[in-house]
From TrEMBL:
Transmembrane segments: none
The entry's keywords: Acyltransferase, Transferase
Protein name per the record: GNAT family N-acetyltransferase
UniProt source species: Kosakonia calanthes
Pfam families per the UniProt record, alphabetical: Acetyltransf_1 (PF00583)
């Protein structure tokens, strides 16, 4: 049985999942199109982080970085390939969205890459729509920017 639980950016299992995501993205995109952030560099009050546990192992993670204006950015969503195809991505995104709503977030944005077809499909299925680049990003032909309204602003 899978469980989604609170996490911190300094937990070894979260660090390992993020490292696996970094390796995957580094193989797909050049450095200038990789927007890899260190979740541990953000204040705990502005970070929502969840991980998916299967038995005793972390098999997925995702984060939301809250902005003072009520918007937020989803980052570091990753499911171990051995555990994909079980709607874990949808459940993780729903958990992150609910946590963001609970913190007063009205709009959730994300950046993903054009080669991450499964991720784009997942986000679209969860109600995210393509939009133009948002700060701090610039337009990038290798990036796809998406957004979902969670609450009325």
């Amino acid at each position: 049985m899978y469980r989604i639980v609170d996490a911190t950016a300094t937990q070894p299992d979260v660090i390992a999942l993020v490292a696996a995501l970094d390796r995957y993205q580094t193989a797909l995109y050049p450095a200038e199109s990789n927007h890899l952030v260190d979740l541990a560099s953000f204040a705990q009050a502005s970070l929502i982080l969840r991980k998916i546990i299967y038995q005793q192992d972390a098999v997925g993670c995702g984060a939301v970085l809250l902005n003072p204006d009520g918007s937020a950015e989803m980052k570091r969503v990753f499911i171990d390939p051995a555990h994909r195809g079980q709607q874990l991505g949808e459940k993780l995104i729903a958990a992150l969205e609910q946590a963001a709503i609970d913190k007063g977030c009205h709009t959730l944005r994300l950046e993903t890459g054009i080669e991450q077809h499964a991720a784009v499909k997942l986000y679209q299925c969860c109600g995210y729509q393509v939009r133009e680049a948002f700060a701090p990003y610039s337009a990038d032909p290798l990036s796809i920017f998406m957004e979902k309204k969670l609450l009325s602003a």
